[in-house]
Design goal:
Structural class: alpha/beta
Radius of gyration: 19 Å
Strand content: 5-15%
Helix content: 25-40%
């Protein structure tokens, strides 16, 4: 985790730093003096095509309280390739625990890639008796007949963003950012097979090792294994609605 960030690094090194009598502020000063603070990078690539003939579903999660794993899954597609080697990553993430449940990398934006990620997530689902909502943007892949049939077959409710506000799918957007900024999955120019191996390794580290501020510094796997902890939320500017907290 070469770009994990100072807060999480301090948490992971806490016992050793306390033995050296180094507090959080001093630790930050040490990193800053050695030019080791992480500067976030920003990139934007449109992968959503919402101009299509398929049905668009309403947003089911605006006013619900998320209090357990496998209550809401969020889905998104992000661009991780280069001009000479385009790649697209489909992700399914549990909104409560921030655990990546399913993923797949392809060199195109075909619906099949998103379906493969969904099927991987469904294989990890533990309790089929509890209701589950799948939330995404209104992209062609999620509205397609093939994707909707998979949701219906597994009795998963479909929810979609109503406009272009990124806060309506904030968890999915944030997970994309973590994988790109911290794990730098978009810096490679390799064949899709190699990129899939890189993503697989990154997801394992992300789910099993990386502490999350929004999980009270638990890993996604730790957060996913219980349902007693309240999920952190915040209020957006000029809004009374609670939104999923940044990770």
């Amino acid at each position: 985790m070469p770009r994990i960030g100072a807060r999480k690094l301090y948490y992971l090194l806490l016992n050793k730093l306390q033995a050296l009598k180094i507090g959080r502020d001093k630790f930050f000063d040490i990193l800053r003096a050695n030019h080791l603070l992480i500067q976030p990078k920003r990139s934007y690539h449109i992968t959503t095509n919402s101009h299509h003939r398929f049905r668009k579903h309403r947003n089911l999660i605006l006013d619900i309280e998320i209090n357990r794993p496998e209550q809401v899954w969020v889905s998104d597609i992000t661009y991780i390739g280069k001009r000479n080697n385009p790649c697209y990553l489909s992700l399914i993430t549990d909104a409560y625990s921030k655990k990546i449940m399913g993923y797949y990398v392809a060199d195109n934006l075909n619906t099949q890639s998103s379906v493969i990620a969904l099927k991987m997530a469904l294989k990890q689902r533990k309790d089929f008796n509890l209701p589950l909502i799948h939330h995404s943007d209104r992209g062609l892949q999620y509205c397609s007949n093939e994707y909707q049939k998979e949701l219906i077959k597994n009795k998963v409710l479909c929810s979609m963003t109503q406009n272009s506000d990124p806060y309506e799918n904030a968890v999915a957007e944030r997970i994309n950012g973590i994988l790109k900024q911290e794990f730098m999955i978009d810096k490679y120019s390799q064949k899709t097979k190699i990129i899939n191996k890189i993503i697989k390794e990154s997801v394992v580290i992300y789910n099993e090792i990386r502490p999350h501020y929004s999980n009270y510094m638990l890993t996604p796997n730790q957060m996913h294994s219980q349902n007693k902890i309240n999920m952190r939320t915040y209020k957006t500017k000029n809004s009374n609605k609670n939104v999923f907290v940044a990770v």
